[in-house]
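Go through this chain for my students:
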Amino acid sequence: MFYTQEEAAVLGGFLSSYLNRGSASGLVREELARFQVGLEQGCLQKAELLWAEQTLLALKPFWWEEWEDHRALMSVLLKTQALLRADK
């Protein structure tokens, strides 16, 4: 089980729109770049999935509002959590 193309696009696009900006720390942008490479190649490691889960949860106040498609993002969050459980 892995992300579908649609899930990867939703996840990558959302994270990039919030974290790939000058106001984000260099470390955050580096983590995002590493995550996006793994996402595109379909080879995310457990640490990257944990990072995505924590980041989605931290950004939840931004995506739960009407500005973002919270149903798609919640689906991606649940899929991320399922991937983490399957990896155990």
The chain has a mean pLDDT of 89. The two ends are 14 Å apart (CA to CA). The helical segments are 5-19, 26-41, 46-58, 60-63, 70-86. The CA atoms of residues 3 and 79 lie 7 Å apart.
